[in-house]
User: Fold this.
Amino acid sequence: MADTKTAPAAAPVATDLPQPTPSPATGLRGVLGTLTSARDKVTTAKENVTQARKKVRALGWRNRRASYPWNAAAATAALGVAGSVATEFTDVPVDLAIAGGTGAVALAGGWALAKKYSEQIEKAGMTSRVQAGTVASCAWCLTTPLTGANALEMWLALGLGTVALSARWWQRIRPGYPAGTELVLASPTDLVPTTEPDAEATAVATAAESILEAWDATVTVPGGLVPGSKLTEPNLADHRVSFTVVLQPGKQTVDDLRALAGRIGSAIGFFGKDIVFDYGTLPTHPTMTVRISAEVDTSYTGPVVIVEGEDLFIEIGPYVDGEGAVRYHVAGPNSVNSGFVLGSKGSGKSRVLEIIADGLRALGIEIWWMDPQGGASSKALKDHADWSLMGLDSDEHTPLELAYIGNMLHLWRAVSNVAKIREAENVAMGLDGFTHTRERPAIMVMIDECHKAFNLKNPITGNTFGYDFGELDRVTRKLGIGFIGASQIFTMETFGNAAALRSGMITGNLLILRMMEKSHCGLLPGSAPSPLSLRKGGGYGYAIDTDREHVMWRARHIGDRAAEYLAAKPKATLDARAAKAAGPVYRNRHKTAARYTEKAMATLEAFDAAPEATALTMLTSGPRQPEQNTSTGTSAAPAANAGGGMASVRILPVRPSAQTTSTAASGAVAAPDGVPAADLKPGAQRVMILLRDGQAWHTKDMAEALGISEQAVRGHIRSIGETRLDNLGKGRYRIK
Assistant:
């Protein structure tokens, strides 16, 4: 039998064995593929390097202001080391001369820079620290040539001195954070991307190129908006690009650029509101930041309170360029600050007040809220303020003839009395001012539409309430009482023609939101940006007299959750002395609010049940005058519900001169001095009823309200006479 052999198993194919030589065509494609792959890798590497350089430049741009102290320290170090090196080759007398020279150069350089940027340094509140830094720099440069540059203690002194003198500066230029408190930490102000990151970066780069081209083609040319200028150092960041604008010395300034922002924006293809000009390293090198496509995060998650030493701040909202946030300065060393919010209807004024109030509640500060509109401005503050005064009028503990300003009298007396008792406490305890604590809390009086309140006359003093509160504001900041006003108007009448009140309220805390009427902005500083240029949508504003007053910000969106946030925090508890000084109206405030709510409900029921003619009479009857008892000479209280009027509910504050002496009187109107006035014709009576709110009315506005001609209004005013009306000039009148 033939031998049979088993064939050996096939050996496994090794993947790393040499492969058959490809054909020439296949080899060429492989080489091309390899080259293409290598080129793609090189391109990717270049892009990564470019992106890294952009990020580094952007990081440097974001931290440019933070690096100012280190730049000064580096210059000091360079000068001192140069002097030290020079002294190694000289003898003792020359050594002293070199040391003195370096110290003199440091002193002269610091003085020159401080003088050059004095305005910015003063606005930042860093004058004393810059002066101290200049002296320290001089001392370091004077000593280093004598001790040698290798002396470790000299470098430690330079580093620690820089940190110590610059700490406050670094705190002020970055978003704040609470220190040593249980308050909500400041959330980062991040930009919300509107597109994919890669697409956004491409859009920013493309925009930067187009801006450079448009600037060279239209702005810098002879006869252009900024002839001879140059746009350099583009820095790309998230959703914005920044440039350095090189101006011609003596011909252009940063203020000129700000005035031309709208036209420059039109020239480079952007809206003026998206362009921000700011000071640069030199007066002729300002910066221009253009917002490309971003919206700052304005979501509200609770109050952001910043504690910097003895200074307390409340964050309102982020700047639109993403760098930091605007803050309300609540209190400083031994004092409480006042403030003012300006904005037309729909600008977000009341929402800003609610954000401030939420921060005050978190700090444990007592909130006294007055709304001349009867609580319509902010239901959250009406329901949750520590003391809510709804409307100007009140008959609580007030003679009937003064009920039309009852709440103003209550507020004025309460503030006056608390100020007196706290002044006595300061004297007794040897205090220099007031420091807020939860045991002895500060009080913040917030008044919306304050022009309606401050322009009224105080019958007790004969002054406007604005004048009386202005005199209080001179001293109350050291007694723990501040005032925050809000209005649609910014003229002297807003403050009751009281310069002291205006100065006290706007110094340091002046927030302006969008305005629609230019004539209502007459008192804004000349350097302030125009509030007419702010964006629509609510919440956009400028913070005047700050280092970034020309940069727009937007308030965080508290929406309709203000009541929820306020209710979630415990109310302040006023100390016993202050509560006693505030008086019975303050102590019974909760019962009073409940009583007025019940009266309002009863009035609505009566209005619904009454015939139309009677119901309309109820709306216009107002508070009734006490009936005079001719036999005894005393006033008798009116019978309950007499005349069917709405005296139990505030409607419009009816001044005494506009009240009828009796429901039977057909036209007699009581004059301010109590002398019976002559009967008025129906048309003149309508004018008097229109003017009874105590505000200044223009004849044109009266004509529109009454549906008659302006000439007819002037005729009625002549028939009323000067004994009952104040002629304010330019066609404006107010009831006496």
